[in-house]
Amino acid sequence: MAWLLLLVAGLCEIGWAIGLKYTEGFTRLVPSILTGTAMVVSVVLLGMALKTLPVGTGYAVWTGIGAVGTAVLGIFLFGEAADWMRLASIALIVAGIIGLKFTSAV
Q: How far apart are CA 7 and CA 13, in angstroms?
């Protein structure tokens, strides 16, 4: 269950990171409310997952999910660069997340 909470927390992190772009400096009400909600939900779910998971593993996986998801969506939504070095770097983060999952005792 902790891994599922962590996954959803990571997805919410992606949501708020991408949402920041749409808030236009928190000048748009609806995107700002949605982004703030995603921030709170993300941290609360991370906290719940860390009741069971080691903090180093949980936090690293949470930030990794957020980093990978945000980078990939940045490519698709905002036309950010998708060169081989960027994609290889994203793949390394994914490999790290998988490695932490498989080496975790929980």
A: 10
pLDDT > 90? residue 101: no
Q: Pick left, alpha or beta for residue 26 (phi over 0 → left; psi -120 to 50 → alpha; otherwise beta).
A: left
Q: Angle 56-60-63 (CA atoms, 0-180°, nearest 5)?
A: 145
CB of 46 within 8 A of CB of 99? Answer: no
Given the structure tokens 């990978």, which residue do they identify?
Answer: 68
Q: What's the whole-model pTM score?
A: 0.89
Mean pLDDT of the chain: 95
Asked whether residue 106 carries a pLDDT value surpassing 80, the answer given is: no
CB 42 within 8 A of CB 61: no
Q: Which phi and psi angles does 35 have, rounded to 5°?
A: -65, -45
Please state, in angstroms and rounded to a whole number, the distance separating the CA atoms of residues 22 and 77. 11
